[in-house]
Design a protein that fits this description.
Layout: E1 4-7, H1 11-24, E2 27-32, H2 40-44, E3 47-50, H3 63-73, E4 77-79, H4 89-98, E5 101-102, H5 107-114, H6 116-126, E6 133-134, H7 141-151, E7 155-159, E8 169-171, H8 177-192, E9 197-201, E10 207-215, E11 221-233, E12 236-242, H9 249-265, E13 270-278, E14 284-290, H10 297-304, H11 308-316, E15 333-340, E16 342-343, E17 349-350, E18 353-354, E19 357-359, E20 366-370, E21 377-378, E22 385-393, H12 396-408, E23 411-413, H13 419-427, H14 429-433, H15 440-448, H16 454-468, E24 483-485, E25 489-495, E26 501-509, E27 512-517, E28 520-526, E29 533-535, E30 538-540, E31 542-547, E32 550-555, E33 558-565, E34 588-593, E35 600-601, E36 606-612, E37 615-620, E38 625-630, E39 637-638, E40 645-649
Length: about 650
Amino acid sequence: MFRKILIANRGEIACRVIQTCRRMGVATVAVYSAADRHAMHGQEADEAGFIGPAQAAASYLDMDRILDAAKRTGAEAIHPGYGFLSENSEFARRCQKAGVAFIGPSPESMDAMASKSAAKALMEKAGVPVVPGYHGDDQGKKTLEKEANHIGFPLMIKATAGGGGKGMRIVREAGDFGDALDGAKREAKNAFGDDKVLLEKYIEHPRHIEFQVFGDTHGNAVHVFERECSLQRRFQKVVEETPSPFLDESTRAKMGEAAVAAAQAVDYVNAGTIEFIVGADKSFYFMEMNTRLQVEHPITEDTTGLDLVEWQLRVASGEKLPLAQKDITRAGHSIEVRLYAENAAKDFLPVTGRIETFATPAEDYVRVDTGVRSGDSISIFYDPMIAKISVSGRDRAEAVARLNETLARTAVFGMVTNLPLLRGIARHPGFASGDYDTGFIERELDTLLERPAPDAAAVAAAVALLWSGEDSADGAWQADGWRIAQGAGWRLLATDMAGSDHDVRVAGNPREFTLEWSDNSHAVRHGPAGHGITVDGTHFAAHVLAQGRRYQVALDGRAFEFDLASPFATRGAAASDTATHPVSPMPGRVVAVHVKEGDEIAEGQALMVLEGMKMEYTVKAGVAGRIEKVRHAEGDMVEAETPLVDIEAEE
């Protein structure tokens, strides 16, 4: 076994690898960029070394800097995590040349699976089913258009050199193909340095199911069961679970055999996943192989009791796989959600900023994989994932119930996150029944982001009000600006998650009072701390998290958020007109400018394309008119809310 390894990554995956190494007695070396000087992974490791500027290309993707850090610290092996250099065969070769073990597959296996088109051809030879499509070398636009018409619509365009939804487009009509192809190629070039694409028949209402595979240098290969990954947005996974609620045992067995056959076809060593697309009739097709440890590996560990990072280390050091296929078992059900700094209500735009408070419930069935803490920041330079939260149960019903309660008691104060979306998914009947596919979030988004009923919200506001006075004899009841007149009661302004203001009136004492919310009146009784409250004769248990005047109340498995303030507080100014002065919706880099000064434009016309936080966004005109000024050029870095273009609106 290695004595010391370097982790060529950051964030939660670096922290995850450190945990296993610490348990196994393996020393760890972390690397960090200028943006990560105070990051959690650097502080958790035994050693940490600076490797360059915040931009990934000059730090985490710089092979020379990584290998120099390994040499300087005496690391015997490098764990690449996922993303960055994890699937870079050149880096794996350079590790071999430098005499440092690469904790992952061989460069040859990576090369065989790196190109989606080449991988599909290889799988066809191995007898693994593949989706009909075109994955040839001729990338001429006319050739691709001809092949697209031959395959038929709808179809999918995919970058051959990467994943994570980058360089990927669904095209439903022939007339949309040209623009979609241009966008996919540009995004692929920016993300992977390679604009080659393949075309695939798009399977309607598909399920995305992957199998965890492992191979060793002694010729052994196994699978460690499947993970359902169908709940996605922009082709990026949001919720994963195991076992899949869709598969029957016969299909599961066939897919497991196909997954192992796929791994054996490339003499695969270490951890990987075989990704399948599964039709409504349970027909399944190979999509791609990820030649690394996956983000969602914790749920496999939760249900099997295995440590997949330990398996990686043992295989990379030359040991045989710890278990044969017949000895790998699992029990129970596990679900993982990805907590992102993004606004699901605004087209999933990523968000930057400081996390004032990050809190999750401390239950033995909850697992939190994260690389941030309260007080840390989410920057423009890297993926906006805050944490992976996993829950386990004896069966799926228990796991779903626990997921609802866990998400209701999870809070991120200080910035917008996708928590409302995750909560909406967890309580949706379609998710509870397992009846969903890869289009579920897009179809159900409005339902998933529904706001709580006013009366239920009033109960939560009462809990928050009581909590605000918990630390003193009178507490909120004596707070400056809240009292109207002695003996006459109190007024509060409660701003809910939707930004709506509610006038709240309270009369009584901290243990028993009347709360008026809108036109409804509720009788509230408050027992000793920890005993919940009674509203209109119904008892509620509640958990409260607070940050300043911001309160989050978990009530019967649902979360309610409020700002509680004086009704006389000064409100923010109205938002500026962004129709004639469109602004950057996120911090990022301008990668394309489609207009110039003097151009006549139509409403909805593309103005600029921005790239930031691993995604691309097109800014469109909100009105028809004439371009007065273009404020930024290609290559410019802009912050969120920065004006981009001035438009003289058409009269």
